[in-house]
Amino acid sequence: MRHDIDPKAQLRTAGLRVTAPRVAVLNAVAADPHSDADHIAAAVRDELGSVSTQAVYDVLKACTAAGLLRRIEPAGSAARYEARTGDNHHHLVCRSCGTVVDVDCVVGEAPCLTPSQTHGFAVDEAEVVFWGLCASCRRDAPVDAT
Predict the structure, then answer these.
(1) Tens digits of per-residue pLDDT, 11-49?
(2) Looking at residue 117, what DSSP letter applies?
(3) Residues 81 and 70: beta-carbon distance below 8 Å
(4) HEC states along 48-106?
(5) Each residue of 46-83: b (16+ CB within 10 Å) or e?
(6) Which residues 6+ apart lie within 8 Å of 139 measured at CB?
(7) pTM for the full predicted model
(8) Domains delineated in the chain
(9) The pairing of beta strand 90-94 with beta strand 129-132
């Protein structure tokens, strides 16, 4: 998703009706990438007032299906959403605090990896998640005295 286009234009281009909840969801995800649905719903409520959690989930599903948002599911974490789509980038996830950050594809073009066997699949995407400790958690981790 291009970040220099306003959400209303993005929705129209994707063939979706422009509604206040859809605009608010796109704004919330753009403002805080890698947020989960609860965090997005709270941001939408701050902007619009009363909006049901189900309505937010419906918007997330529609915007993901239209290619405006990308849904990622790091193991052991709730699904998260981001507005950076179409480039098959990967993610770094902190095992301690759960921070998620983008990392560009190692090769630079989709699908970035070639499986040893395709079993007849036409591979168009590879999802890689790098796990570790972010700089802040490493700094705060107790030093092993052994």
Answers:
(1) 999 999 999 999 999 999 999 999 999 999 999 999 999
(2) -
(3) yes
(4) HCCCCHHHHHHHHHHHHHCCCCEEECCCCCCCEEECCCCCCCEEEEECCCCCEEEECCC
(5) ebeeebeeebbeebbebbeebebbbebebeeeeebbbb
(6) none
(7) 0.81
(8) 7-72 (1.10.10.10), 87-140 (3.30.1490.190)
(9) parallel
